[in-house]
Amino acid sequence: MPLSAGSRLGPYEILAPIGAGGMGEVYKARDTRLDRVVAIKVSQEKFSERFEREARAVAALNHPHICTLYDVGPDYLVMEYIDGPQLKGPLPLDQTLKYAAQICDALDAAHRRSVTHRDLKPGNILVTKAGVKLLDFGLARVSDADATMTMGVMGTPAYMAPEQWEGKPGDARSDIYSFGCVLYEMLTGKRAAQDRKPVEPAALESVIAGCLEKDPDDRWQSARDVKRAVGQSSSFVPVGRPTSLYGRRPYWAAIAVLAAIAIALGVVYFRQRPAAGDVVSFAVYPPEKTAFSAPSGTTVPVPQFALSADGRTLAFVAPTGGVPLLWLRPMAEVVARPLAGTENAQDPFWSPDGRWLGFFADSKVKKIPASGGAVQVVAQPTAGDFRGGAWGQDDTILFASGTEPVYRVNAAGGTATPVTTLDVSRREGSHRFPQLLPDGRHFLYTILGAEPGVYAGSLDGKTKKLLIRLISSAVYASPGYLLFVDGDTLLGQAFNAERLEVSGQPFLVAEHVGRSSAYASAVSASSAGTVAYAGIISQLGRLTWFDRGGSAVGSAGQPGDYSDFRLSPNEKMLAASLVDPKLGTLDIWMTDLVRNSMSRFAFGGVLSASSAWSPEGTQIAFRTLRNGRIEFYKRSAGGGGNEEPLLVDNAELAARIQSVNLIPTDWSPDGGRLMFSVPSPASGSDLWLLPLTGDKKPVKFLAAPADEIQGVFSPDGRFVAYASNESGRVEVYVQTFPLSDRKWQVSTNGGYEPRWRGDGREIYYLSTDRKLMAVSVGAGPSFDVPKTLFQTSVPAGVSANRTHYDASRDGRRFLVNTQSGDPAATPITVVLNWTAALKK
User: Are 159 and 120 in contact (CB under 8 A)?
Assistant: First the structure.
């Protein structure tokens, strides 16, 4: 019997009927206890105990695109009241993609809680100003005997998966089948069961076909994968250029950030080319369960990649088992493949014929056949810290290394000779990112120093011409443009490669590209009219306090991209280096943990970072890059007074002084020394000591044919814990101080970032799978077997210039840079026929 306005169901007052069907009625009502409007669905039958129990489980779902289930009565459901129409197609493509992603998001959230819908259809999806809302979610999780009590949620014939037709209960893949029907209807306005025809774009047809496979094992296996595929599809839309080139964003620059794995958009393009003159862009994502690798030492991480000269293959760096490898992704294939033997690869570059790849690894310039094979060493420079390479038509390879000039070497190997000269009078710190121009005799490169910019040089060393006054790399893009990054914006400018002259105003190519940096390049171009660019690799996190059992007990500061952070000795202050999201610079911020207030402590130039507290907590030492080189300063922790230089111009470190990996790691307990790591081409990174009294001459403390990083003093100053890869895997070691032949390996299965407890009786570190570990320290010293405290969600990877946690002095709490959920994968956006946009 229908309910009238004013009648009550428990605490709910009926306001008006909304709709009715064969299984019951739906009413708009008011919850008199909370004074909120709700929707009540009344069944013609009483619910079973199992249905009520499972419905309450569904009520635990909390998602912006799922209609919330508030309460369950004996024969009614109380839900969120949604004011909006039912989903109905056909819809514009952009709206379809938006709603499809939201539906997949909701399905994925529910499926992860073992909740399936089993009656997904347009009638159960409402459209609001904030997006879609899915109704009746999960109420099909009942037995067949209870189906008559669930208002038909066992399925609607036009949207039911084949296994549901067969009377099987179905699972998450049944929802994916129904989603394919819904997606088809959003695009065409017709039901897939009645008029199933291929849709455009072709990439979306592939998504739908994968949803509607008859065998569940042949379908997409998760809603998350479907969402990724939908996101990829959104970037495969040929469009034109806006009317103005300068100051406006080309529509083709919009990238899909919804996906984390690659699908076959390149296959679609190369097999079904769009009309001549179309600009096409699509996103390439890292292989499943991995991520693109940033160059070592960079403070603003961007993927490392390079397009082949014909634009048909993309090379990039991504880790396998934690070790960076080169991967190749042909545009006409679905997946990328790794190149064996390229461990620790960095900064790939192609030979002009596409048969070889050059790269840097293990302080050497190397090459490998693109088809795979033996790796060959081309050169071993006197400095590491590689920053870019290029391969010319005459088999000349240019490369940049550390604080050196640009060098040339024959691709067959031999002696490397400089083709640029550092001008000491202009305080030039290094020459980087060489890019050969079409004539094979001239090249672009970046000068870092007091007068930074993009310059043109020549192989005979006679040319040095400023083109763009900007700290950024630049690439030549056929038929006559320079592409470079200013801030986080990719710009283009007309360029005459014969006269080495830029002309006209820069024009906008794309936004939200990896920020201009002295340490990484975010753009590549082929001679065939293809351009690729990427944004920064997101490492946003929240500094969260955890107890020893892994329970969150609070937070510190604001969410952001934290490069490093250290607690003051009294644990009342926090010095942290944060990436500025607009400028791409790194500044030190001080957080008062008692008052929960933040203020900027050190800034200026490209970076201010790597805080080390004095033992009494009154001063902070840190590094800067303001004058074309790394310098160390100290300042009162209260922020007053001037900065006092600690390490500025030092002849012994001059060859390394520009490296971003010159990093303070700890201040000795007696206050007399600052420990810091220094890159070395002969022995990897070494640990050095800077005396703060006397002659203040830096001295080497620990060096081996491996990396030694992250050195920290024990509280009594008798030992140093550090991380090293001398065994082939990064492990934590303890060395006596002063140095002797006594050394202990503390970790047993990989470890990094050691920290001491305040009494020296325990050492903490991160395992390679990002667990926080603890090792008891006894007399002698002696070290117990490591034990796991808890699993963290810190960003993956070992980095000399990033820290991920700190420990309280009593070892009861840990401040951890915790990522919230799975970060969105950073794509490399590939743009085909990009210059066509300039002609329209």
Answer: yes
Two tokens, residue 520: 């990484």
183 secondary structure, DSSP code: H
Q: Assess contact for 816 and 578: CB atoms under 8 A.
A: no
| pLDDT band per the 50, 70, 90 thresholds, residue 283 | confident
268, two tokens: 């679609």
Tens of pLDDT, residues 404-439: 789 999 999 989 999 999 887 777 777 889 999 999
Maximum alpha-carbon separation in the chain: 95
Q: What's the alpha-carbon Rg for the chain, to the nearest Å?
A: 30
Q: What is the C-alpha to C-alpha distance for residues 252 and 234, in angstroms, rounded to an integer?
A: 11
φ, ψ dihedrals at 46, nearest 5°: -75, 145
Q: Which residues contact 270 (CB under 8 A, 6 or more apart)?
A: 312, 331, 332
CB contact at 8 A, 552 and 544 = yes
Q: How far apart are CA 831 and CA 840, in angstroms?
A: 16
23 closest CA partner among 108, 111, 112, 119: 119
Q: Tell me, what amino acid is at 512?
A: H
pLDDT confidence tier of residue 62, bands split at 50, 70 and 90? confident
- The two tokens of residue 310 are 């014909």
Closest CA relative to residue 235, chosen from 211, 210, 266, 272: 266
**Tens digit of each residue's pLDDT (9 = 90 or more) over 470-512:** 777 899 999 999 998 876 678 899 999 999 999 988 888 887 7
Residue 824 confidence (pLDDT)? 53
Indicate the helix (H) or strand (E) that contains 204. helix 202-211
